[in-house]
Amino acid sequence: MSALWEILLAASFWAAAIRIASPLIFATMGELICERAGVLNLGIEGIMVMGAFTGWFAVYLGLPLWLGVAVAFGSGMAFGLLHGILTVPFGLSQHVVGLGITLLATATASFTYRLALPEVTSPPRIEPFQPWPIPGLSQIPFFGEALFSQTPLTYAAFVTAALVAWVLMRTPLGLAIRATGENPAAAAAQGLSVTGLRLGAVVVGSGLMAVGGAFLTLSAFSSFFFDMVNGRGWICIALVVFGAWRPGKAVLGALLFAAFDALQVRLQQTPLGAVLPYQLFLALPYLLSILALVLMSRRAEVPQALMSPYNKGER
Amino acid sequence: MSPNLSPSRRTILKSGAALSLAGMIPARAFAADPIKVAGVYTVPVEQQWVSRLHTAADAAKTAGRIDYTYTENVANTDYPRVMREYCEKGVKLIIGEIFGAEAEAREVCADYPDVAFLLGSSLKPDPAANPNLAVFDNFIQDASYLTGIIAGAMTKSGNIGMVGGFPIPEVNRLMNAFMAGVKETRADAKFQISFIGSWFDPPKAKETALAMIDGGADVMYAERFGVSDAAKEKSVLSIGNVIDTQKDYPDTVVASALWSFEPTLKAALDAIDAGKFGAADYGVYSFMKEGGCSLAPLGTFEGKVPAEVMAKVAEKEAAIKDGSFTVAIDDNEPKSS
Predict the structure, then answer these.
(1) Do B194 and A278 touch (CB under 8 A)?
(2) By percentage, how much of chain B surpasses pLDDT 70?
(3) ipTM of the complex
(4) Among B72, B73, B109, CA closest to B91
(5) Residues of A in contact with B198 (CB under 8 A)
(6) Which CATH class is domain B33-136?
């Protein structure tokens, strides 16, 4: 038990949790915007792969890191537009389209990568974002190391989350987006363009997912691997549910999941690690998240029009 | 009109030319008829393990010994299909790895008895069921052991971190040999060992390594990509595995255990040429004796590793090569201490 306290009281543990949470926060915010507008975007996993690739590749070709992030955002928006066109005006099954987008984006990323770099025998590297301690704040004991000695892209994740929360909950645009996800007919009766709002939400949300992917290649690591997103997209889908479709709670969920993940690698090194199989530790974040989901989701309010396409004039 | 059967002057000239050409071809073909080889890989060719196969095959292709094509990133479930396609195309030798498709791949081998298969596998060869399947693996425990001796000498805290993908025999074997090497120079060394449950999640491998460094490790055994990055970020040392990554981390990668697939491939090609290819365990061709593995040059760490340690390494290396010392092959899952 004392080993557990030792882990939890170390600033480096919380720094790790925040690092691990960052890509999840970007992508969870992206998914949350889509779902709040009534569109389930299962393209998330593939769009993250795409963002990881395009962002990295742009930097590899010589663009500055922040432009790499912008390129990733753009590539995510492109796939988001495809997803949006198929699911919003055409009203196709959101499950099928989403999984299709995931397959398409994943395959496009690996195909382009191999076309561009046919003869590599070790993964090419870039110089990724370096930790950037915030002057002053990073000097605070404990919190300085845990919160304010991260890479710029991690700070951007939290700023993005705050921005998404503010736009969705505090602005007329956010109200309009939420209205299309709850009752599109009522929104249309107000003179709002349901198609336009939903399309916009899917496009911007997908852009954020791609930035979440790019975090892996531009901040967390320095090379691109085909399988490196490794299911993080699916976790974000669950995090949206966990957060009951609220940005603040979703960020909390991402942090919780990341903290469990940071905890399990450290627990493996305690005497417990020599006794229990390692798979149990790897499963720990998922098990604890399911438990938390059960507790948290009892009062969750699902957007009423989630997954139902809107056809103007249809009764 | 009856066909003109008497040959024209042009026809005679043509056939003469054809005959003289035909006379030349067998002579050239006898010298070097490239063997058709196909690589079937479940991961991209940048992955450390597969990159060794790919590099060796590419070299043989450049040398004119083989005619080489490959398919990468094949899902294990799709692996038998890709094997069959190459067999149908008339490939003579298939190289690859069937750790995740052992039974299915063996069925394909049985269906194409005229094709030779040289596949990475955790299982033993079976002459009765698959006389055309030879297996291999990266048995580079000799080199891992030597890197362990260096690691043991370089650690100050006596705490060494090791991050692996999955605890499968080829990973365990190298980790155990490395740990045995460490014990030679640092008998009281402690090991932190983790498996991340994925071959391709460098961010996760890096996080795991960072946690170990927080926990006091000052030398990292880099079985996966990502570990050396954590070591570089925290300015601790790391030991490479299978490939030499020192050029990417000149200040932190001390030594690497290198694997060369060339001797394995050469042995298989020689056997095919001699018509003697059969079920065999080619794992031995990865041993140091056969030139299948080696200790990477110290490079930037030349002179920074104590001379008496390098003397010990040289002594052990000589003993391994002349057979007076054998590094134990231990496939059990290593545990943290």
Answers:
(1) yes
(2) 91
(3) 0.90
(4) B109
(5) 227, 230
(6) alpha beta
